[in-house]
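Quick one:
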Amino acid sequence: MENQTYILKNVLLETGFEYEDGEVVKTKTDLFCIEVEDGKIKNIKPNDAAIDAIDAKGRLMLPAFKDMHGHLDKMLFGLPWQAVSAKRRTVKDMIAYEQKMIPEWLNTSEERTGRMIDFLQSYGTHFIRSHVNIDPTSGFESLNHLEEVLQHKKKILDAELVAFPQHGIYYTHTESLLKEVAKLDAVGFIGGVDPYSVDGSVEKPMELITQLALDNNKGIDLHLHERGESGIKTIEFLIDKAMENPPLKGKTYVSHAFALGHLSDSEIEKIAERLAYAGVGIVSSVPFGDTIMPIPTLRKYGVEVLIGNDNIQDHWNTFGSGNMLQKAHLIAELYGYSTEWQLSRTLAFATRYILPLDDNGMQQWPKAGDDADMVLIAASCSAEAVSRISPVKSLIHRGNIVF
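Output:
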């Protein structure tokens, strides 16, 4: 169904909070009819179960999900199962392996990327920020293949692309390729990876990345796995650059930023305040084990924290579920967000901060005029959806019913 006018009936929407002794103990809901026209929500009316309309069957309507860190161009999804090798321990080990395997992977990348997108969408994702390899082995082939797939999916999926010099900028002589790709309209962000450990310097690759972003009106999204001094130095470099160059504010991100998970409480408070002031965000796949990211502290200071699946099935990791609701659930478990109010707020990590109710329980989504980007879920409220990782029954992107 494409850009048609239609009505959904028996749609469950959140309408407010129910309080007991000052505590939110329940989320109020009611059934509505939702009229969609030309990719927008046109009207929201009291429910009329008797009308001729698409029956949502009492399922909860929530904002569609956004996966803010993926690698659609080089997942091994669709190939025979292969676990991670213990022999490849460092980023440079991975670079060598990719240089060997990329020519083979490119042969089937378009078909497998399409299947990966279908998989992510089955969990309610309608928007993906994808890093795409720019390196001497693949040239622009990874980008071209991904663009071809996204063109076919454009009616049911939005994406933004990060030019990702996965093999280092100077380590594998990728500088000229990165300069060329930075000029393309298809690319929204300039990426990078572990500048000190891969390229041997924080300053040299970071100067190039920030200058390319400024010269071409792009954002920055840097992979930073490094812990310790070099990791913090790189984050501080980006903070300084964003403060010196206002166009970078709100468009600069550090993905992973594991160094932040190894600071003292006072150190993380200090750097969180600087990140927020500079408009530098953090993108996390929500690791756990020996690195627990200080997401609550970052949010307390107003740092934009974006969440993504990162690896689904690839040579780096095979544990990604592809489910953004599961990521929100993981955050709730890790940080002890167990009350009705806390769980309802945690949904924000799956939707990039679009929530049906504001912190005081006032209805703020959906409104007439909003993009018709939504999911229908078998749950009674946001809190239950996050806690139980409730199944997604339907995805609608810009009014187009994906399933």
